[in-house]
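User: Run a structure prediction on this.
Assistant: Running it now.
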Amino acid sequence: MKVLIAHTTKKGSTREVAEKIGEVLKSKGMEVTVADIKDKPKPDGFDAVVVGAPVMMGSLLHRAPDFVKKHLKILKEITFACFALGGTLKEDTEENRTIMLEKLTKITDKITPVDIGLFGGRYEKKGDYRDWNKIQAWAEGLAKKFK
C-alpha cells in the first residue's frame, strides 16, 4: 500500500509527528511518502492519504483544508485520515477533544476520514505536549484500517 502523509507546519512540530506516523506505517510494510503541503504533493497514485496540520491561534493552518479542497475528488476515491496538533490538548479531555474536532470541520465537512488523530502540540516557550506513545498507538491503529 502506498501512503502519502501530507502535512503543513509553522515551526516543524507537525512535520515531526508526520514523520513518526510514517515510520510506524513503514514498519507495517507500507510504502510511505511524507511531504510538506507547501511542496504541492499530489495524491494521484496513492492508496491512502493522511493530512496533518496544527491548530494555531484557534484555527487550523489553512494549507491543509486548501489541499483537501483542491484534491477532494481523488481523496474521496481512496482511504483518507487526518490529524491535528494543538495547545488545546495540553490536557487531553473530552471537552478539549471536542474543541479540536470542531477546528477540523474545515476538512471533515468535505470528506469523512477513516480515523482522526488529535494530539498536543509543541511550543517553544511553553513546552512540548506531544505524547509520542499516543501518536505511535494512533499510527498503529491506522495501519490496521489501511490494510
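The chain has one domain: 2-146.
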